[in-house]
Amino acid sequence: MMNKKAVVTGGSNGIGLGIVRCLAESGYDIALSYHSYREGAEAIQSEVREHYGRECHIMQANYVEDGAGKRFFAQAVTALGNIDLLVNNAGITRFESIFDLTEETMDTVLKVDFRNYMILMREACLFMRKKGVCGSIVNITSTRGERAYPKDAVYGGVKAALNRALQSVALDAAPYGIRVNGVAPGATRVNSKAEIEAKGQPDYLEELSKEIPLRRPGMPEDIGQAVVWLASDKASYVTGVTLRVDGGLILPGPPEAPH
């Protein structure tokens, strides 16, 4: 994977941070976007350069703004000189009951979690087709796109739409050797236990882990390794697939059965 180039949205913290680390470890130069956490972006930039010996460019982007995705992609490609992989990860989570649902929530989640993903996929496909790059696109979705939860009509509905949309994009892009897939995380620990305790927040993942078949929450690096595999030649015959990385959390089974 030496000298490969990856563009990652939302790479300064959480799942995006784990993805960036795994890609850098696998030999990718990276351009990542961040929304407001510049300190985290600068920290991972230094880590990628000093620990992994790879290029890392950071750019601020607010995907609620019209044109932000297209601008970021152009900046990223200019900085890297090429692109082999796009990882659509930046997203916003809002949970509201249908009785409390606001138009602002609908517009924001649709813009950031769906419209922007589509725009970036379009830009990546256009660039790869023009340059003859048999590249890869990986979209971070969610297991919430497959299972219904209360107060989750918009966020979960958008993730379900993304799972379906990437299949059609995969068909459009396949004749040019471009593969398009998704990774659906489940319950993933994006903050350490120490950070949670420092904020005085309950560690709900600790309790939920008892209900996860593999008995632990996911880690950002679990998602990152799935992205690395889907982008690699080992997955060269895989396209149009959304890969669950959830420890078996939403596997079907009789509700009365003990875990």
TrEMBL record:
This is 3-oxoacyl-[acyl-carrier protein] reductase. One of its GO terms (molecular function) is 3-oxoacyl-[acyl-carrier-protein] reductase (NADPH) activity. It is an enzyme of class 1 (oxidoreductase). PANTHER family: OXIDOREDUCTASE, SHORT-CHAIN DEHYDROGENASE/REDUCTASE FAMILY (AFU_ORTHOLOGUE AFUA_5G02870) (PTHR43639), SHORT-CHAIN DEHYDROGENASE_REDUCTASE FAMILY PROTEIN (PTHR43639:SF1). Keywords: Oxidoreductase. Its EC number is 1.1.1.100. InterPro entries: NAD(P)-bd_dom_sf (IPR036291), SDR_fam (IPR002347). The keyword Oxidoreductase applies. GO terms for biological process: bile acid metabolic process. Belongs to the short-chain dehydrogenases/reductases (SDR) family. It holds the Pfam family adh_short_C2.
